[in-house]
Amino acid sequence: MRKHAGKALLALIVVLLITGACFAEELYPGENTLAEAARKEKGINSYDTGPTWANWQALFDGFEKRYGIQITWNDLGSGATVVRLDKERNNPQGDTAYYFMPSGDAARERGVTEPFKPVNFDLIPAELKDPDGNWFCIHKATVVFVINKNLVKETPKGWQDLLSPKYSKSVVYLDPRTAGIGYAIVIATTYAHGGDLDHLDKGIDYLAALQKSGNVRMIEKTTEFDKFVKGEIPIWIT
Question: Which bin fits 208, alpha (ψ -120 to 50), beta or left (φ > 0)?
């Protein structure tokens, strides 16, 4: 694939089903051909698919069990993934990518994606895919507050609660400039404050107010899962 297909990827969305041993009945046309190409390259490089996101670990396990092909992953963040793909355009190293929908379209515009249409591609709503298969959505996500009750005595019930002094230096979230989930948080706060996709200033203003309140502990570049499990994060917006 990196050597044979040239450019690599898909999107937020996406896992390119490359396959392993030969199967009498393929899951989709060309499955065995892709499997053999991946086997020759001794594995799959999957960008921005941290195993704690979107059940990727279970998918990795099932993939490796079916095809006997190892998956190597990273957790770059959506924006950084597009930058990496662009830098590697003359010597592609990634086989698949998973990122926020706007990042998928940004990668398409830069010409670093290879069209691919999975099984049931026609069932995906038009607004959730590129018509040529350069990117397509595989799931939706809900923004939530994850609370460490050992560190937070009173659970916040909404966005306004997070502005309270009681949550000083408690809130952590991903950087909207580089991470898809961070951008999703901007959208969520925008809608919560009466805005829409054409008026994201509502969400940006809220996050600025949250920052000014002194309640933001850190804005992360990559997944904070391990830090939360270790008890280092009181309130995680994700």
Answer: alpha
Write down the domain spans for the chain: 31-128, 145-237
Domains 31-128 and 145-237 share a fold: yes
The tens digit of pLDDT for each residue in 134-148 reads: 999 998 888 999 999
Pairwise CA distance, residues 2 & 71, whole Å: 14
CATH number assigned to the domain covering 145-237 = 3.40.190.10
Dist CA 141 CA 127 (whole Å): 16
pTM of the model: 0.70
Tokens 């950084």 -> residue: 80
CATH number corresponding to 31-128 = 3.40.190.10
For residues 7 and 156, what is the distance between their CA atoms, to the nearest angstrom? Answer: 45
